[in-house]
Structure formats: structure tokens, C-alpha cells
Amino acid sequence: MPKRNKISYAQAALPFAGSTTRRIQEPLKLEWRLIAVAGAVVLATALMYGYVVVASIAEVSLREAARTESKTLAAERASLEGTYFQKTRGITLEYARGLGYTDSTNKVFVTRAAALSYAGDAR
């Protein structure tokens, strides 16, 4: 006589506790495995979707922060250029001489004796 497979210990008193239990038990195991796999796939898909949404929101936030910082830096650069142009227009030859600058009479230019060449230096 083959060994009986029990779904639970409470089935001993039931009338179908005989050989039909094996036919009920195997499809139940398969269905629960399929349900578990389907649930895991749905959960993994939901997690990936959540990650993509959060990453997209973070990228948009970083892009807006970079755009704001770029505008701030452009405004600061424009302000510094304006200050530079204002100060350079105010410097004249008379103003420089008043500060003690003089014209240079002995101008020295640097010259090289011979230019380097790859062919001559390779030997």
C-alpha cells in the first residue's frame, strides 16, 4: 500500500483522506509557486518603476539647480565685467603719471640663439 500524503493533520477524519489527496496537493503546490513567482515579478517591476521615477525627479532637480547656479554666475560675471570696464576707462596717461608711473626707455626683448628642432635634438 502506498504512503499517504497529508495536506494537514486535521484531514485524517475527512472522507477524502485517501488516495485523492495526492491529486489535490500537487496542483495546489504548483499554483502557490506560480502565485509567488508572479508576486515577485510584480514587486520587482514596481521597485524598478519607483527607482526610475525617483531618479528622473532627482535629475530634473539637479538640472534646475545647475540652471539657477549658471544664471547666478552669469550675472556675477556681467557685474565684474562692468566694474572692469568702468575702471579701465577711468585710467588715463595723466592719472598713471600722477600715481608715479613713468615711460620705459630701455626696452629689453628676449631672443633665442637657435630654435630647437626635433631632428637636431633626436641625435
Question: Could you characterize the architecture of this molecule?
Answer:
The protein has helices at 20-90, 93-98, 118-121. The model has no long low-confidence stretch (mean pLDDT 80). The chain has one domain. The protein is an all-alpha fold and 123 residues long. The chain is built from 3 helices and no strands.
Short description:
The chain has about 120 residues and is mainly α.
How are the elements arranged and paired?
Layout lengths: L19 H71 L2 H6 L19 H4 L2
First-to-last CA distance: 100 Å
Sheet of most strands: none
- What are the segments in which pLDDT stays under 50 over at least 5 consecutive residues? none
Alpha carbon gyration radius: 43 Å
Structural class: mainly alpha
Anisotropy-based shape:
elongated
Helices and strands, in order, run as: HHH
Count of individual domains: 1
Strand fraction? under 5%
DSSP E strands, number: 0
